[in-house]
Amino acid sequence: MKDYLLSFDLVTVAAIELLMAKAKPRTLKKGDFFMVEGKVCSEVAFIQSGILRSYYTSATAEEFTYCITFPHQFMTAYSSLITGLPSQENIQAMSAVELLVLKKSELDIWAEESINGIKLLKTIAEQQYIHLEKRVFMYQKDTAKERYLALFESHPEYVKQIPMHYLASFLAINPTTFEPFKKRGPFIDICLP
After folding, report:
1. What are the tens digits of pLDDT across the range 15-42?
2. Euclidean distance between CA atoms 81 and 76, whole angstroms
3. DSSP-based three-state secondary structure for 163
């Protein structure tokens, strides 16, 4: 987390160490939840290891994985964190996960007291928005093959850990497309439309 925050070159090492002193380690087993739909989110997590997925459940009880977050990234139920309203999403561990967790209240105090703390949080929020926008464009413009290859190229070591039905949901690909292809790797693309 320290290296990630320092990479923005906005706050001092001392300020980051103050923030890290507020972070509490938390371990999740595969299948455990960081956030559950209907609860208000009051925490932000930095993923040290493992993979988290965000999903929502449709009116027909179908799960839609819309976000997969890998190590060295922050994760939260962002709209619930901002509004204080109950979350519409679940955040679940797809593997054993090690987190550093910050309470929103402590993060807000730190941002107010730290020179450029608010600017750092704003920059991280802007990056999250840009990431979300890229995903929306990807779903609308890219083929299934292009979506899979982009994910595989950016996170090859983790793609094999993601169950196929979650991967298909995340990439907006019919799960039956993956059924005949148990082998994961860059060659699956020849099987996708």
Report:
1. 999 999 999 999 999 999 999 999 999 9
2. 7
3. coil
